[in-house]
Protein 1
Amino acid sequence: MEIAELKEKLKSQIILFLNLTDLTPADIKDDEPLFGDGLGLDSIDSLELIVLLKREYGITIQDPKEGRKVLVDVNTMAEYIQQHGKQ
């Protein structure tokens, strides 16, 4: 899967998994931080994103430090999925 296609799919999945019904994939910038001042996600949302990675891409993240590196923005998630995921 092309990286651009993966990013669009990932944005749709984030909206679906986190029930962000007021957003569209176009509202999420590839380099916008997912947490804090960016998209404004919290620690519960990070757990949901870890479940998404496991369920959709076969990626298991157990180390919180690794999770913080992966769940920065859509770009870092997509790159990690391309390197480690089952697509």
Protein 2
Amino acid sequence: MTLDVSAIHAEQVTLNSLVQNILYASGTVGAILVVVGLLLIDAGTARRKNLFNSTIEKTLGFFLGFATYYMVGFGLWAGQYYIMEGATMMDSVKDWWLGGGMTNALAHHTDPGTFPGLNTFQIFIFFLATFAGIINILFHFSVSERMKASAYFVICVVAAVVSSALSWATWGSVGPLTLAGFHDFFGVGFVYLFPAGMALVFTPMLGARPGMMDPHPQVSAYLAPSIGLCAPGLLLIFAGLPMVILSCLFFFDPEALAVSVTMADTSVGIAINNYALVWAGGAITGLILAYRSGNYAYTLLGPLAGYAAGASGFDVYLPWEAFLLGLAAPLVAFAVYEFTLKRGIDEHKLFPLFIGCGTFGMIVLGIFKAGTPRGGYFGIEEGAYAFQAGEISLIMQLVGAAVCIGVGVITALIMAPVLKATVGLSVSEEDQVAGLDPKLWELEPDVITHADSK
């Protein structure tokens, strides 16, 4: 097809629109860096005999969620804006599924009266699809080395669809829970609390890994191959997320007025500095906890705890408030981590960081930022979707957190019996002891650890 320059819609391809395209594309790069960081943490903490299998399952689970999101997920999330305009959720899905008209349209051939800023919306599919994959990676941390790959992969597809529907309700500016007063700038609810809710069901079903909580006759201790890999993994996550923050902002005239995805009043500098300071505060308290307890885990949990607690409010906090929240959050992670250890619960990431700190952050936000105007859509002056017509509410923060965790729990409760009756759920204890790398891939570790030689 020959390009007729005189017939293009120049408003769709201005320099200003290109700047926004690059900005949102950088968010996808940041999200991919988070993926790499998570895989490094996994490589440093998985048992040596499961190292390849654990990493490759996470990688394939990521792409299953990623592809599923392209099929249907974005249409579900974008449905909130279609409904705002008087259309339906199904109209959104028809436009934005993998074969949809808007997914496959060339921006300069599309009348801006039909869909302005099309390139940016198309790039946003990639951005959010990456987080659909990240949800699966996070969930895998809670079932790693114990759940059958076939069961995990089925869950990956289902989780991508369910989390997409959850994002419609909880993340954006005109979803039903957002309009009612629930505030979540960074998607803590559907990205972090949802997989943690699934872990609440599957973790006790699968039980502890051999040697993890107590010595096993054939595995005297659970030994990670290289905890040192976790530090660069942590810093890769730290490096990638500022670009993701930019993609959680809308930009309007004049020039580049930043408004958060929830339509709260914010600025680029404030949001990014809030992000930096929750990490710094968390790292400081984590350092103290680690050296006082002699447990290296708090050096890693500390900064992540600050981040998980602050992420829902990066747009509305002031930097000094974010720093104080970061200092406090690792204490919550410490309490949850110690609680699970004493009860022999083999889940050391999602429970302390997300169930603990993520929920804690939402409650703090509801207490100290109650009444902050947000919601609606910029330029709408009256009606249910009026710009900043809603306010942050403590009650809705509690409701929103409960909904996100609850949807994860319900999803797992439905999936568990189905998986048990079909592909099976658990890796046998014998195979867990022997290791999944030799069992599935005929890969043997280069060294035999003293824990496995007993």
Protein 3
Amino acid sequence: MNNYAAAPEEDRSKAEIMGQKRQEKALREFKHVLKDLIFLLRSASGMQTVYMYWINRSREQFVLETKSTELDNVMFKDRLTFENHFLNEFKDISEPASREIGREMDPSLLKHYYDNVPVRYVTMLPFVNNGETVAITVLEARDQISADGQSDVIYSYIDALRNVLNTYLEISDLYEQQNEWIDYEKCLDRLNVRCHRAELVKRLLNILQEFLPDGGVSFVAQGMGSWCNVMNSDEARHPLPVGMTMEKRSLASEAAENGNTEFAIHFNNSPKRLSPREQHTEGATMAIPLLMNDRRQGVVLAHDKNPLTFKESTKHKLKNLVRVAGLQIMGNDPGIDIDEPVFANKFGAFLPDFWKKTVDAELLNIREEKSKFHSWFGLITLSNLPKLRTKMRIDQLDQMQRDLVRTFNPSQYGYTGILGFHSDYIYSFFIQNKDSEAVDKWIAALRKNFLNSFELDNGMHIETDITVGPVKLVGESQDSYQVLTKAKSALSGAMKSGNNEVQ
């Protein structure tokens, strides 16, 4: 596998083509063996006609594999629906069954003969795999002696068929596993890219999503004085709300505290992935810490409704992809300070690329009518900022920004959302909620903190108010850049008029 990973792209393509050709060759040889087995069975047993049908239960069809006959008036159809074939009565048998034509079975049911039906006895041999009848071999004879007196030949055929089929299935599984790991190597290659760390996280989430057909992926990171969900994969089913805060005794908190991957199957909505307030806690979840030199910088939550999705090989792939993403982020930015949260600035506001990608993803969901929330984006700042900046030292201003980010955190007021950095003393916010008035209620709750003097953690008091420019996300908005332009206009208008109406 290491040799394959190190091979040039041209060599990989050749390897894939050769692997496909070997798999096609194995299938051809398997079919040839079945054809020879049916011929040998007819010859050794003295039967007039022998044939084999696969049972395709999903399409409710009998599919002809091969046949052998010494008769002239025989014509088989490759595919027949269950109701149009006499084998429908026998598709669930687990032991051989025989019928006498004319007495126990109507001759007209044997539609592969034309003019007349020259055989008198029919024997069905089921092939059972994993408790299910998957194929039936039919032997047709003129007299009962040839049908009843060939038990050794018949059982030798059944054993040979079982051995051939099991061998073919093992070979097919090996080829499928080989292709599976080839695809995995391609996933690793997709992480080998120089880009912003938020772009790499989004890329990682979307890659992991491909392994979860009925689930989703979320990324939990540190910022605003807490840990919260800051991003979901684009195709996530039942995604966690952006901004939902991580709480104790959740799967994410366990992974963040001990630095180990946690896995759980959910029973009766327990354990929770992130918070007691989350919905749709079902199936199973992996909580994978994103480590950078053993520092916990995030937690990837990968969940699926079907716990069987998380095979050991799949778990290995998910963990390793997250590990490689952490290494790639450090490789892209050698000067990164891993002793501090790397997805937020020094004041705790998340990097702009996170809210941009979140807004773009939500606009797409709104246009495709997938979103179940009301969503807002906007800008928020202090009303008398110029006056404060002339009175305070740099260290006091820095302390004020740290305190403001924690105070503005929507989760402090019961709303899910994130606060991002826009420029000094101006912060962006993204809020999601089922309440159509959530952003107005959040603003009103915020204002109460500034009715009297606002106390900083260092004991200093400031007299100020807030100015907010919120914009509700709608499908007509093209992208995050257009939404940001509207938010700037809303903030400018609020500064001039003193109003904070949603645009």
Protein 4
Amino acid sequence: MASLWRYVLAGLGLAALLAGILTAVYLTAPQAPQRAGFEIARSKKTTNGLFVASFEPEQGVIRQGELQSWLLILRTGAGTPVEGAAITISGGMPQHRHGLPTSPQATDYLGDGCYRIDGVKFTMSGLWQLHFAISAAAGSDTVVFNVLL
């Protein structure tokens, strides 16, 4: 009977040790960024208010690890589509301090202020930022979109 109690106590001790290790690992593991504190709107005014920009994946779903096309829709403050804009794109993961793994480009004007952005790739989960520099007849402006995977 005494040996049975030793096995029970040893099992309880082992369970407590395992619970302690799992708790320590959970509390020290890096956490994914929370939505709170990160503005992730898909439509917003540009920095100087010249345009209203909207940014969305062409297929409607953000996919990690795949090259994708996104749509950038530009309108004036009055809602008129912005045509003939020159757009440059940069960005990266600010928390990891690295840039994009690809060089996205505005490749097509689809009409009605809609531009296709090809070459967007998110290689890992976390907070990504895409910076757009826009130059059109109304002037030059910038906008930054946060994308949280």
